[in-house]
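lol so apparently i was supposed to do this last week
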Amino acid sequence: MIKIAVMHGPNLNLLGTREPALYGAQTLDDINGSLAQRAVQKGVDIDFFQSNAEVELIHYLHAQPERGTHFLIFNPAAFTHTSVALRDALLAIQLPFIEVHLSNIYKREAFRQHSYFRDIAVGVISGLGAVGYDLALQAAFHYLEV
Ligand code: DQA
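anyway here it is w/ DQA bound
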């Protein structure tokens, strides 16, 4: 069975109330629920993880090869712009992934315009809101030929 993992970084647990003009009105449960529904329709196993702690995100990544995960969808949130450790974890596990951002990081503050993941991702989706996650899942299905 094809397995996909969706990982959300810090502060994304606050979606719905966190700066809605920037990040939208949908909660993380809304986003995950929509992805879960699409995965079920395809007969794909999908797992979700959110943490505000870098170390927990690293541990989750390290566990993915053993889980048999084929593909990751990852919004690193603020760690996008800071985390060599998460980049190294992704390089270590060698799993294909799509980097997702709700907001368009390229039209925001200069410090958000650098990503430690963009050159090792299969692709990057930024600025399309919650729809970006659905598009990432669609792209994962295409990549995995399911
Ligand atoms: C974000 C963009 C990041 O710059 C920010 O730190 C986030 C969310 C996004 O989804 O637009 O927390 O990754």
